[in-house]
Design goal:
- 45% of the residues lie in helices and 5% in strands.
- The chain contains 19 helices and 5 strands.
- The chain has a 5-stranded parallel β-sheet, sandwiched between helices.
- Helix 4 links the parallel strand 4 and strand 5.
- Bound molecules: flavin-adenine dinucleotide.
- Flavin-adenine dinucleotide binds next to helix 9, helix 11, helix 14 and helix 16.
Length: 473
């Protein structure tokens, strides 16, 4: 059993073993870093041999029930870069990262048995599929030890002043409950790791799983300002806090574009290349040197939102994906295949939404304001089932985080942690406020679109784009 719901943070299901040598297997997930990683620290203390594995599952590239892939090409590129960087870092410890191209459920039990592994480590994960896979491996290999630890959240579960079942129904209540909890300082990188477990080189099945398969899409030719890996994440952390930007965060964070408008930590946080505690430690250091401001404190406020959604994911688990969310109220939306396709391919009647979706499709990133606008349009103007939008974000976003993504979508669709119900953003007002001169639309869609929109606006008014004329299929 995963310890997500319990109070302990380590060794949720350790069974006694007669073996004196701990031969550990670390199954990596959203924890692709060396520093501030409780699992590596525990391994350094308790294991004598170690195998480190990441599983890339063929199912991630198949179309899901929500008409999207689990992992699109931008996410894959960032992930592969992060894995490569971690492997290079591990080489300095005489270790190696083995990428297994098979589902964890299918491959890990076999690997564990073939290599006589006595303890398996895994970071706590609030995702339902991840928890199912973890339980399945324990059922397949019941006689070894299992350790789960917290690597993603700011707080350990035992620091929370309530049982998980009592998690506050709104963010504001949660924030008040946790605002005085001391955030543990980020830990340094460990100085030693045990030697590698020797791979069964002759094992044909294992060799097949370790060979790069043809079903993984190519990402070599793709470039992006976001480059995966721990060193790149730490560089962004250092660059951001060596500037004065934190003192302007609050007034700039709603901009639609611009590297400096927000921290851009999310892809590294989501993949675990950076920990939330490392961000808070860097923020505290910045404030000790340059003073705290409402703006710098707002960064912490947003990280508490992230924290809330993570515990929300642990608590609600499968309900994250339910049409009626956690509220139990079914929204008045449906599955309109052509509207969903238009939204995904940036060809709705709304230029601002199209520009934002083009940005997402081209880069795998979109600002928070942008995400709110396109999600609101999806649910309100296009009247589509929010889960199809969330699943498309899941495919596209390089910072995809199961709890934060599905939690935010629920919030906007009015079925989540918001007593006020669905959020409807007035698209015309949003455009006037955040893109008054059409620079964002122009940058992503080109000048003609703006001219066409001017003509449409002159003839009617923007509100007259009538979605009722759209196909109901
Ligand atoms: C519909 C929707 C889906 C989203 N999906 C994701 C997702 O899959 N992964 C993800 O990391 N963020 C998601 N967000 C939240 C937010 O948009 C991104 O975290 C943010 O835009 C990332 O850019 P940044 O790092 O520059 O953020 P900053 O504004 O600099 O914020 C700092 C950090 O705070 C956290 N944060 C900021 N906004 C939120 C928020 N609304 N909810 C929770 N945490 C937040 C992030 O970890 C972020 O890196 C989503 C928001 C919406 C509205």
């Amino acid at each position: 059993m995963n310890n997500a719901g319990g109070k302990g943070c380590v060794d949720s299901n350790i069974k006694t073993t007669s073996q004196s040598t701990v031969r550990a297997l670390y199954w990596l997930g959203d924890d692709l870093r060396m520093a501030d990683n409780a699992i590596f620290s525990d391994i350094a203390q308790h294991a004598q041999q170690l195998m480190i594995v990441y599983c890339i599952d063929p199912n991630w590239f198949r179309t899901t029930q929500y008409q999207a892939q689990y992992l699109g090409k931008h996410r894959l590129r960032f992930l592969l870069e992060s894995l490569r960087a971690l492997d290079e870092a591990l080489n300095q410890y005489g270790q190696q990262l083995h990428i297994v191209y098979a589902s964890a459920q299918k491959s890990l039990a076999y690997i564990i048995q073939a290599h006589d592994i006595s303890r398996v480590y895994r970071s706590d994960h609030c995702g339902a599929d991840e928890q199912t896979a973890w339980q399945s491996i324990q059922q397949q290999c019941p006689d070894i030890q299992y350790s789960t630890m917290t690597t993603q959240t700011l707080f350990h579960s035992q620091q929370l002043p309530f049982e998980l079942a009592e998690l506050a129904p709104t963010f504001s209540q949660f924030r008040k409950q946790v605002e005085n909890i001391n955030i543990t300082a980020a830990a340094d990188t460990i100085s030693w790791l045990p030697p590698m477990v020797a791979l069964k080189q002759q094992d044909k099945q294992l060799q097949a799983w370790l060979s790069y398969p043809d079903w993984v899409p190519q990402t070599q030719m793709m470039s992006n300002v976001f480059c995966g890996g721990e060193a790149q994440g730490l560089l962004q952390l250092e660059c951001y806090f060596s500037s004065n930007l934190a003192h302007h965060y609050k007034e700039m964070r709603n901009e639609l574009d611009g590297w400096e408008c927000s921290t851009k930590f999310s892809p590294w946080l989501a993949n675990g290349c950076l920990s939330a505690r490392q961000v808070v430690s860097a923020l505290q250091q910045f404030e000790s040197q340059h003073g705290a401001s409402q703006s710098s404190q707002w960064i912490l406020y947003e990280l508490i939102w992230r924290e809330y959604f993570h515990w929300y994911g642990f608590k609600f688990n499968k309900q994250l994906f339910r049409f009626s969310g956690i509220s139990g109220r079914k929204p008045l939306t449906s599955f309109y295949v052509q509207r969903i396709q238009a939204w995904k391919t940036a060809s709705t009647p709304f230029p601002l939404v199209n520009a934002l979706m083009k940005q997402l499709n081209d880069t795998g990133y979109m600002s928070n304001r942008g995400r709110q606008i396109v999600a609101s349009c999806f649910v309100n103007e296009l009247q589509c089932d929010w889960r199809y939008g969330a699943a498309y974000f899941q495919q596209q976003l390089i910072d995809y985080d199961v709890a934060v993504n599905w939690g935010n979508w629920q919030y906007l669709a009015g079925v989540g942690a918001d007593p006020r119900g669905a959020r409807h953003f007035n698209l015309e007002k949003q455009q006037q406020t955040y893109d008054p001169h059409g620079l964002f639309i122009n940058a992503w869609l080109g000048r003609e679109v703006l001219q066409q929109q001017d003509e449409v606006n002159a003839a009617y008014c923007m509100d007259s784009v009538d979605i009722a004329d759209w196909p109901r299929s």
